[in-house]
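Researcher: I'd like a structural prediction for the single chain below. Treat it as a standalone chain; there are no partners to consider.
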Amino acid sequence: MALWRGAKSRDKQKLEGVVRFFRLAILFCAALSALPAGASAQEIRISHQWREGIDGRDRAARVFVQEVEARAAGLTFRIYPNSSLKIKPTDLLAALQSNTLEMAVYPLVYNIDRVPEFSLAGLPGLVPDLNAAHVLKGSEIHATLQSLAEANGIHIVTWWWAPGGLFSKSGPITNPASVQGLKMRGADPLFEFMLKEAGASVSSMPSTDVYAAMQSGQLDAIGTTYEAFISLRLAEQARFATVGTSLFMGFCPLVVSLRTWNKLTPEQKAAIEQAATIADTYFETVERDLEDRVATALQKAGVTTARMSAEDYFTWLALAQRTAWHKYTDINPRAQELLFATVRIFLGQFGEGGRQADRILGDDPEH
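Model: Treating it as a single chain, here is the predicted structure.
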């Protein structure tokens, strides 16, 4: 009898254990069902190469994360600055395409060997200032770049353009003749093609490698964003700055792997787009403030700073159109139309309008 009661007690304990298991399983399923369809508990990682809390791109990414997490259930993010995921900047596209990385702040010109049309974002003098960059947002150019991005496995989330200048160790850069014999880096191969035509020798590398290259003598001068110059402490190497050139503008959007994007619900995508709009406004404000105070900041850092004259600027722009712009139109018909359409948009907004673009670019049958 005692054995029977013991067995019965053990059976009761087993039954209670089974009931407890199923209760926990039901609670777990209920928690999952509270998430929108398609939501994932996986953390979305954002990688970039710049200094935490210093570079405006890092700070704008944090604004984005704060805003999207407040709007979208089931989405969590973690930012990895300073390439702390050990993914080289030039390897980000491959990581995003394979979905081994979910998001990145990614300069489109880093992989133009795969997507040559992305060189539009690095053409010298094409996007002259933040007003022009703002006009392109939501335009046919934006739509075409988005289409190209998605055809190559990524989706452009934000519209972050960062103005920049020309920086040198040995002397100020004024007109094209002033770079003759210098060893330079310009970020985009077509920008560097223009520099070569002006008599410089060029080396291609991500901005994170520039400090060591200038320190070792591999580089004498660079074109880069003000953000990179300050956050990478390049004032310790370059002693001369030419600002206000309107020649160098970096496009560094926040992008997401298309595989990750396609798994999101419509509600999550809407939350991301709303957060991106807020982050875009924040970043543009930061860049306008930096543009206004960069000369003072550089002078305080001991960098001899000057603004490029109008005459020197137009000499550079003419060289850019003969070299980098012309070479870009040779990539393929889509690249040619992208460039022509960009110029038409700017002239329609700021200048004389459509036909003038054809005259500038030599496509007007009457001229």
